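// run 5 | inverse folding | seed 20
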């Protein structure tokens, strides 16, 4: 007797549901995506008990006629693609024709739908995937899908559902994701009769970010823009101050489709260079527009991963766009920002400060944005540079031989002298390294260093890096090395302890960041080892000179490990603290 049987259609659907429908939030995601594909601009999501007993999605999209309604709950029934060629140019959210069939197979399910222009709508009821009835119903244009008792016939799945509040938070976060990709569409989430999210239609992404995460977040966003012929990128990255320890607030959309991309997320972090603490993750909302033929979205059942045909190109472009935007951003106390603004005035691709002009996510807008953009560039040129005197930070005194107290026109600035000097050193060394214009200072008396066995092999491994940094180090025989020259900026340092300190750091792998290459790593150690120590008394002149050096830096506001170099208290904040406001 044969033991192999073909599975029943319904069982196949339930198995597929295992891939697509994990929890109420995945139902919401699929149904909201269908509403978007149907052209809706108003979507409401009502749930009860974390979505376990009821999920009701109502849209004002194009609706379905009676035949399509019947077909829609069948597996592999889709209006979105017809042949294999279409798979390579997908522009809709759905295309697998699986969601409705899968969801219907594990719930009590009702669709009501009406096309505009048709007199009546139709209602389809199904129970565990079996269509029970189809009848005419009076309703307004659009579609309403109601899912009662999700997983009622698959108790094993039901068991895995979490507390209502947890399921609700999955639902709201999946609505947030879709809402960020579609600022022009209004969304409302209602739980047990109470409105929990209400995002009105908005013309730009920044207001949508504000509606979802609040003004503190939207105020700390740096705009990004890239308009290439092959790809368009726009959106926002958050300043380091609002970075998170989880990747929860990292959003990528490729042609409007939310995706997860670990490699690109890491690329963005590395574009922040040494401005983020190692355990922090940048917040971002980034939209990529790309020819659908250059990506494969069909690599994951829930379509949350995609493959880029040329991933390396994507990585390089994202890296450069983010790095440039971050370097241009207003991340620091007033004095620095203003002087930097006019130092870098010639930079061509930039929106004016405080501009919240549309950063819409639809692909047709990319070109419009590019046009808007060129007009912004010229207005940007009109920005008047401030006078140097207006903007400088003045040292006042030192506290605990470790912190510099200073002021600028905004208020009080406190500087961590070691972190600040580390940053200065880092950029000096990096500059010499990058420009290969080493200013080598020959030592009058060459330094003889005795190294241990492991130090010796380390210095041998890194001799080229040291030499590129401006060190002239020679093997002398045995474990002895001779230092004949040093980068000029280190000339007055105790070289023996700087070099040995760096070797210690390498041995102990106090690695500043996984994303830094060998040179950056050694530069970080080198700057730490040669920077003014915590606890060292400084004269007012030395303090001011450190501040002046910082004002010329590309990234003055964090040390190479990502810790802040300075914090500021504005006069407004001081007034608040003293109860004057
Ligand atoms: P897919 O989205 O992959 O095509 P689904 O199972 O999610 O598959 O949906 C099947 C079909 O039902 C869709 O292709 C679409 O034609 C129709 N449909 C689903 N939801 C809606 C809706 N809210 N409005 C109009 N048509 C819809
Ligand atoms: Mg779908």
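// decoded
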């Amino acid at each position: 007797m044969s033991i192999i049987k073909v599975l029943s259609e319904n069982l196949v659907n339930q198995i597929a549901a295992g891939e697509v429908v994990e929890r109420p939030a995945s139902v919401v995601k699929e149904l909201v995506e269908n509403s978007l594909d149907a052209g809706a601009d108003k979507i409401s999501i009502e749930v009860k008990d974390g979505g376990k007993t009821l999920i009701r999605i109502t849209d004002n999209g194009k609706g379905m006629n009676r035949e399509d309604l019947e077909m829609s709950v069948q597996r592999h029934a889709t209006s979105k693609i017809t042949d294999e060629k279409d798979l390579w140019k997908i522009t809709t959210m759905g295309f697998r024709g699986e969601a409705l069939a899968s969801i219907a197979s594990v719930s009590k399910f009702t669709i009501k739908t009406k096309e505009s222009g048709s007199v009546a709508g139709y209602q389809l009821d199904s129970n565990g995937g079996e269509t029970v009835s189809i009848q005419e119903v009076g309703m307004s244009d659009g579609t309403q899908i109601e899912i009662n008792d999700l997983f009622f016939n698959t108790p094993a799945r039901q068991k895995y559902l979490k507390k209502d509040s947890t399921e609700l938070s999955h639902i709201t976060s999946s609505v947030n994701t879709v809402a960020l990709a579609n600022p022009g569409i209004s969304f409302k989430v209602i739980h047990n009769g109470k409105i929990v999210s209400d995002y009105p239609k908005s013309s730009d992404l920044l207001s949508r970010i504000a509606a979802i995460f609040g003004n503190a977040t939207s105020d700390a966003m740096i705009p990004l823009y890239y308009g290439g012929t092959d790809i368009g990128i726009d959106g926002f990255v958050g300043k380091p101050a609002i970075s998170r320890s989880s990747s929860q607030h990292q959003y990528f959309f490729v042609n409007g489709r939310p995706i997860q991309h670990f490699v690109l997320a890491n690329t963005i972090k590395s574009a922040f260079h040494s401005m983020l603490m190692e355990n922090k993750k940048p917040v971002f909302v980034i939209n990529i527009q790309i020819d659908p033929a250059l990506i494969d979205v069909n690599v994951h059942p829930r379509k949350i991963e995609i493959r880029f045909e040329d991933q390396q190109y994507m990585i390089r472009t994202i890296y450069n766009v983010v790095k440039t935007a971050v370097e241009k951003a207003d991340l620091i106390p007033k004095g620095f920002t203003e002087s930097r603004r006019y130092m870098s005035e010639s930079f061509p691709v930039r929106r004016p400060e405080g501009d919240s002009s549309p950063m819409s996510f639809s692909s047709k807008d990319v070109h419009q944005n590019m046009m808007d953009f060129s007009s912004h560039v010229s207005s940007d040129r009109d920005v008047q540079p401030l006078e140097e005197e207006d903007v400088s930070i003045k040292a006042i005194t030192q506290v605990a031989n470790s912190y510099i107290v200073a002021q600028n026109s905004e208020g009080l600035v406190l500087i961590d002298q070691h972190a600040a000097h580390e940053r200065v050193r880092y950029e000096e060394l990096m500059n010499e390294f990058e420009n290969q214009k080493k200013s080598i200072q020959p030592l009058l008396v060459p330094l003889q260093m005795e190294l241990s066995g492991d130090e010796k092999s380390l210095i041998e491994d890194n001799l080229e890096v040291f030499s590129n940094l401006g060190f002239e180090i020679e093997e002398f025989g045995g474990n002895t090395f001779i230092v004949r020259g040093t980068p000029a900026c280190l000339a007055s340092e105790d070289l023996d302890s700087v070099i040995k300190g760096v070797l210690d750091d390498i041995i102990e792998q106090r690695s500043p960041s996984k994303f830094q290459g060998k040179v950056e790593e050694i530069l970080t150690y080198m700057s730490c080892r040669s920077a003014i120590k915590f606890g060292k008394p400084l004269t007012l002149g030395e303090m001011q000179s450190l501040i002046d050096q910082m004002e010329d830096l590309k990234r003055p506001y964090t040390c190479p490990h990502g810790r802040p170099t300075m914090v500021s208290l504005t006069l407004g904040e001081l007034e608040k603290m003293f109860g004057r406001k």
